[in-house]
Amino acid sequence: MSSISHVPRINQLDATLLDNEIDKVFQNQVKEVFKFCPPGKVDKWQPEIKALLKILIWSFSLRSKSSTFGQQMLDLHYDNLNRKKSILFLILNLLPEYIIGRVIDNSIISSHKKMSKLKVYLKWITTLIRLLEFINLVNFLHRGTQPLLIERLLNISSISTNPHKPRSIGYSYMTRELLWHGLIELFTLGIPMINYHYLKQKIKLLWNYRKQDKIKRSFPIMNESTVCAYCMEKPILPTHAGCEHIFCYYCLQANFTAMKMLLCPECNTELHDCDMKNYVARPYRYNRG
Prior knowledge:
The chain is mainly α. Helices cover 52% and strands 6% of the residues. The chain is elongated.
């Protein structure tokens, strides 16, 4: 391939990503059109709708202009695409996804033994296709041509419509994306490390400060009106830890997992994880006359 017709790898990858985004935009628009239809009426025809959208997109792009919409945005086109290869491109791009959506995901194949074997074979074929696409991507990164497996099978390559036009890069967009991804990584790593139970307890003490009581070794009594002192709901697996109030097991255990000491929200008594016990009702004692 000559230097004039050489297309940078980034342009070819961007064209593929743009095609996928355009496909998603059309699918979202179709969902908006049918969003007021009864639930389930349109969902069962999703594979057919996606196939029809691909045919329409192909008809107005590859069929008439020898380039996809993503390639047109980046001034690219296929240099050796004829009518036969264009139809094969549509079939190879449409058929595997339709089989996955209709046969495998929608479970159109019954639970019959022979039919279940066919479903297993289809899954193996799908896995093989994904593996070939990965190998083709590695080869593309090495050679710089034909990022899609379909392009390699049909022996078609992208060339630039205007070879002398430079690629424009929006650095403000790149900076914004890098900053956003950096913040997301920071929040993803930092938020799980925050002890919310400890902060909640400290804020509560600052907001409504009062002298802490000593540990009360009293046994709680549970009746029909008893609620969890933490979530104020009916206790699930009732538990206590030294004061007269009942907690859900999860409410108490979650706090003790975060810290070893907890102030009772009701009586402000210090509760420790070593005193945590399941609630067992004490039997009544009858006086004998």
